[in-house]
Each structure stands twice: as C-alpha cells, then as structure tokens.
Design goal:
Layout (H helix, E strand, L loop, with lengths): L17 H8 L14 H15 L5 H11 L3 H4 L3 H17 L3 H4 L17 E5 L6 E6 L2 H13 L2 H14 L6 H15 L6 E5 L5 E4 L28 E2 L11 E5 L2 E7 L6 E3 L7 H10 L7 E7 L4 E3 L14 E5 L7
Helix pairs in contact: 2-3, 7-9, 8-9
C-alpha cells in the first residue's frame, strides 16, 4: 500500500554551526545533543593506530603540541604542516577580530548562537552524562593567553569597567580574578599605578613603611615568550606573566637587581583576604627549582588586592615565599581608577 505520511525517527549529524541545525530544532520532539571534542589521550591513541595501520608520521609530541594550540579537533591534529600554517593564520585573524567580551565576561552562559564565533577560539563544554552543553570554553590555554595579551593592549578603561561591574552587580565574577591579574600587569607595564597604595608590612599587621617602596614600571618581553626563563636569562625590569596555569606560586614575576619578586593577584568582592596556605614550602621550592635561583638570591612576595580589602596576616610568619620579616602589599585605587 502507498504511504503518504509516516513518523520516522531521524538522526542528523552536523557541525556545531547553528545555521546547519536551526531548522531541525524546530521539528516536534527534536532534541539537540552535542558530542565533545577529542581528549589528548584519545588523540594520541588514534595517532598510534594510524602510525601502525596507515603509515602516519605524526608523533605523540606533535599531537600534544597541536592539541595545545587547537584543542581536540581531529583535522587540525592530523593535518599536514602546510595545512596547519594556513590554520594558524586563520586562528591569529580570529583572535584579532574576536569580541573581547568573550574574555572579559566569561563563556559559561554563552552559546554559538551569540554571533558567529570561530571554532578556533571556542568550543562547547559538554556534560558527558547528558551530552548537553554547559556553555562554551576556550579551545586551548594558548587561545586564552593570546586573548589576554590582546586585552592588555586594549584601553585599560575596558578592564576597569568590567571589574567595577563585577563588584557592583556580581556579573562576570567568574572572570574577575583573571581580569584583575591583567589589570595589575597593565598597571606595571603602562605606568598607570599613580593611584595605587604601596605598603611594607610586618607579619603582625603593623605598618612599618608607607609608600617607601613604589611599584616599578616594567616592560613585557619583546620576544613574545611570556613564560619566565631561567634566572640567569631573566632581564632586569621585565614583567613575566606565566601562561601555564600550573606555574608554581605566583601570577606575575619580575627581577630587580639580583632579587626576584613574585606577585599574587587576589580579587574578591568583600571581606578579609587570607594569604595562600603554602606553609609546607612546596610552592616556594618548586618556584626556586623552576627558575634555578642561585644561592643568595632573595625571593620577595608581593600581594595585590582591590581597594578596601582587609588582608589577614594570621599565618604570615609561616609563609615560605618570604625571606624577610616584611611583605609588600599593593592596593588598587578606589573604583579601579575610574
């Protein structure tokens, strides 16, 4: 018999471009599920299989390096170097053209429907139980760090406004700690720290010097290598901002004379800020080993907090990053200088 109409379940697999599945979403009973990108372990297993069965020449080291650039997108991991050169150029263009609200305001509440965003910058963050998305995430730490550097070259008022709004409304608080770090870095490299207050404090909280040690004006590395080199290769008066989130102990780093200054940037809306608990000395030892600090080099601790915060020094005397009985505290200006 001839059938005019039949209900048949249909599975459609498409890329995450909204234009490819928008009409399908409007069908009765339609449900959108999202497959996550490949993990590094999965990609290395696939690369090993292709080397054995198909003669691929892509090594585990290449897979890891490409994953750090592009995330878990198969065609970029297994592509030829000629194709990757073109992809890298497209990624650089995407970073240059990107709306910096991606960086300032966070990705948790966003989808790819919020304007066309390059897959070279963001991907869906997928819940592996429901295969629903939890917002977007940056493709890689490289993309996040590159956008951060671009943000540092933008008008500082954009960062100030975002921080002030986070304090006043709670909007964008998930990005505020990283923005505050960028705000401190901008103040140090662009000489915009006139309104900052600098203190040298005793562990008891007693103020021993006020504005006797000023924030320096530093330069960023001209080479573009933002991870700190070994101590012997560090340049005096240059700000280093580690890209690796596992870098031990500090957010920013610079050298003055023979001494090293490690900076931690602590943003919070209200209340008392506690110094990080590093009483076991692990972070200090890791930092000294990472930089290969020579004997006799002093490692100073600098703590940056927003205006009006009340830092607690209850356990300050145990802090292993401090090699004297004093600590440098930098307070940001009220309303971030706006």
């Amino acid at each position: 018999p001839e059938v005019d109409n039949v209900m048949a379940p249909t599975l459609v697999t498409v890329s995450p471009d909204p234009g490819r599945y928008y009409e399908w979403q409007k069908q009765q009973g339609a449900e959108t599920l999202i497959m996550p990108c490949y993990t590094l372990d999965e990609l290395q297993a696939i690369a090993a299989y292709k080397r054995v069965r198909h003669g691929s020449t892509v090594t585990d080291e290449q897979v890891e390096a490409r994953f750090a650039e592009f995330g878990g997108i198969m065609r970029h991991i297994s592509g030829t170097e000629d194709n990757l050169s073109e992809t890298r150029e497209r990624q650089r263009s995407a970073v240059s053209d990107a709306d910096l609200r991606l960086y300032y305001e966070g990705l948790e509440s966003r989808t790819l429907d919020h304007g066309r965003v390059s897959h070279l910058l963001v991907q869906y963050d997928v819940d592996l139980d429901s295969f629903k998305h939890r917002g977007l995430r940056f493709t890689s730490d490289y993309v996040r760090a590159t956008l951060a550097r671009r943000a540092s070259n933008e008008d500082v008022a954009v960062i100030q406004t975002a921080l002030r709004r986070a304090e006043a409304t709670g909007y964008g608080t998930e990005r505020a700690p990283k923005l505050f770090e960028q705000y401190v870095a901008t103040a140090l490299t662009k000489g915009t720290q006139e309104q900052w207050r600098c203190f040298v404090l005793h562990p008891s909280g007693e103020e021993v010097q006020k504005n006797q040690w000023q924030m320096p004006v530093l330069q960023q590395p001209r080479t573009g290598a933002y991870d700190p080199p070994k101590y012997a290769e560090m340049r005096d008066g240059v700000l280093y901002q580690p890209e690796n989130v596992t870098f031990p102990g500090v957010d920013l780093l610079f050298k003055q004379g023979a001494d090293i200054y490690g900076v931690q940037c602590k943003w919070g809306k209200t209340g008392t800020h506690k110094l990080p608990d590093m009483a076991d000395g692990k972070a200090s030892a890791q930092l000294k080993a990472k930089l290969q600090l020579p004997d006799g080099c002093k490692l100073h601790f600098v703590w940056c907090v927003p205006h009006g915060r009340d830092p607690s020094f209850a356990s300050f005397g145990e802090h292993p990053l401090i090699h004297t009985d004093k600590v440098h505290i930098w307070y940001a200006p009220e309303d971030y200088g706006l």
